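Reopening this ticket.

The earlier resolution said the output was attached, but the attachment link was broken on my side. Pasting everything inline this time so it's all in one place.
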Amino acid sequence: MLIHERYIRREVALATLLVLAAFLGLFGFFDLINELDNLGRGNYGLQHAVMYTVLTMPGRVYETLPIAVLIGALYSLTTLSRHSEITVLRASGMSTGRILRLLARIGLPFVLLTFVTGEFIAPPAERAAQELKLSARSQLLTGEFRSGFWVKDGHDFVNIGSVTPEGVLRKIRIFEFNDSRELLSVLEAASGGYQAPAGWVLTNVIRTDFSESGAKVSKLDTLVWDSDLSPDVMSVMLVVPERMSAWKLWHYIRHLSDNRQETGRYEIALWKKFSYPLACFVMLALALPFAYMHNRNAAVSIKVFTGVMIGVLFHMLNGLFSNLGAINSWPPYAAALTPGFLFLFAAAAMLWWEDRR
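Inline output:
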């Protein structure tokens, strides 16, 4: 490895890691403040809030790493430009193409880190965080079986087949017991949704009551289910595409296809699983034109602030195009790749303009 490549790699990597640490500290602080509202619920204490916040950090790393790469590269390259080091490299015959290839080699570890975090670290850590919160708040939730999820609600046991991304429960069975652990009734419902302040409203309900005289079956169109289970508890079972690994997404898409259900949102999430880490390359390319600008045109602080705004815009566009793609039935690859291509085009246009000058 050449000396100048090792030097630029070190500067960009250190600045990126510093920005990432600042992001994690900021998000961690606000997440911890948000968790303080849960203190005193069951056995949920400060130590549980701290551990919950720590377990959600891998998800924060996955979300913010491309933006940290942009800001870190902007700061380090602009600093090198201010010291005329970029100018020396270009004067010695290093073309824009060679600098971009150098930045691509620098960005490869960040791409791999983003992918590994989002695929193997963040999903199980997020699930562990939710289970920790439920356990500390004295609410029991089992793992996923072929029959769905099982939740303990007081003396009752609840079986839920699945939960849609909109928070609708499917294939609900509620086994009601008394204090002596005797089965009082079995309630089956096709679906249910949470409607504040009433609670869970179940539809297409079949209720079987047991007594000494026998069993009595009744059917209801709707029934309000009075339960201590909140949407926060149910969110542990919620199938959120962005929090699933690519492998689980693939299998879930096949499951939905076999049952002739809508797969658009999950296909977009699957494409984003592979395209989002590549955003690190795009962010590095986007930072280079700012390094070419002469210092009298923009100070380092202004460029860093611009990088923050670009990062926020990229994050917003990612969510916007995912939602638009799901609503308008766009091709999944178009909804997932369009924000990256827009920013790549912007980087290419800015580089062309700077070279032309």
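Reporter confirms the inline version is readable. The chain has two domains: 3-137+240-356, 140-228. The two ends are 31 Å apart (CA to CA).
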